[in-house]
What does this fold into?
Amino acid sequence: MSTVYRELGDFIAAALGGAVESTEVQLGELMVTCAPGDLVKVMKFLRNDSNCRFEMLIDACAVDYPERAKRFDVVYNLLSLKHNYRVRVKVPVNEDEAVPSVVDLWPAAGWFEREAYDLYGVFFEGNPDLRRILTDYGFEGHPFRKDFPLTGYVEVRYDETQKRVIYEPVKLTQEFRKFDFESPWEGMLQPRRLPGDEKAS
It folds into this structure.
């Protein structure tokens, strides 16, 4: 399969010329890297060309590399049902650089792009509804960035005693975690009552 992907990568690179920075086979899949300005052109080609036919957008996400000049990779996973191929399109971007939205090509990209914006702060130019999707409206920062504090900033919860919504610093409580350091097989050798055993007697 890697030979097929290598040939497909060479075909894509030759057809798109300078729009593709590189193609390589990694982890049994083809990976195409391009600049943000060429993303829509590359994605249209991958979707419409008869040798590609990547008509299904499986996923879009971001990856954070804070030590790099281009801090984020925006990654699109595409599937060709016709040829049974998979391709990963990677777009390296700066922290303040916008990525063109692919919502016009795949409407499902809207929510994936909103998630990447919410969790990483990557801006998608042309997305018609770029709002936070997982965090609260007043949430500060982007929680999947590697420099985001582990304890976060504030959490929102309803306080029953005060009968209102309150904001308080995030606390990671661990008092309910118990470790017996036994594997499930070793632990089950000892006679013990499991939930539901009382129904058998």
Remarks:
- The radius of gyration is 23 Å.
- The first strand starts at residue 20 and ends at 26.
- The helical segments are 2-16, 39-48, 109-120, 184-189.
